[in-house]
Amino acid sequence: MPTYLPLLAPTDGAVCCGTVTGSVISVADAERTARVFKALGDPTRVRLLSLIAASDDGEACICDLTEPVGLSQPTVSHHMKQLVDAGLATREQRGRWAYYRVVTDALDAASQALRP
Amino acid sequence: MPTYLPLLAPTDGAVCCGTVTGSVISVADAERTARVFKALGDPTRVRLLSLIAASDDGEACICDLTEPVGLSQPTVSHHMKQLVDAGLATREQRGRWAYYRVVTDALDAASQALRP
Q1: Are the C-beta atoms of residues A34 and B43 closer than 8 Å to each other?
Q2: B69-84 residue pLDDT tens
Q3: Contacts of residue B45 in chain A, CB cutoff 8 Å?
Q4: Residue in A closest to B7 by C-alpha
Q5: Interface pTM, i.e. ipTM
Q6: B48 touches A: beta carbon within 8 Å
Q7: E strands, chain B, where?
Q8: Which intervals hold domain HTH arsR-type (chains A, B) (predicted)?
Q9: Is B69 on the interface with A (CB under 8 A)?
Q10: Crossing angle for the helix pair B104-113 and A104-113, nearest 10 degrees?
Q11: What CATH number belongs to B27-113?
């Protein structure tokens, strides 16, 4: 369930999914929200999400992500784990390689959290 | 000038303000974007922004921010400096106190950067 962050007090009624309209964000919601933004707060992870999202079928093999970001596979795996743990990407192991997809709903929830 | 991040390749034409439609984000843009999300990646800073945004006139004195987050004034000042440096808040010194406002355009740009 996405968490919406009323950073700016809504003026036009209730917002989807549990936001307490017009109130200051709770400590628990602030922690959940900050966790997502922390995962986004690194240029390599931003690039990785962008690369995956721009892939032809919206899916990228880790074997295709190392070269564009110029990092080793363990380092890319580490960054991807943080994105997966934050709910921003999914990981599927197929044979030798891990394949990643962006979780569009999570990005949209993060986007909504910043909207007036 | 806000930077828009094509995390998800746009499908409906150009996006405002310099996004290269449908392409993978550049290293420079990823760095600028990650800097903003890094500032948002802390629960205290999320709470501070929310508190300021929810203030009656959209402005909050640092003297009114310390108690709600339960931190000392130097610590709150430190967090606020990171938000100001990231362009997410403005600071105005009036007499003894600093007063802060949320930069709505910057939040909106960050929100846009995550939109499909």
Answers
A1: yes
A2: 999 999 999 999 999 9
A3: 34
A4: A50
A5: 0.80
A6: no
A7: 59-61, 89-94, 97-102
A8: 25-116
A9: no
A10: 170
A11: 1.10.10.10
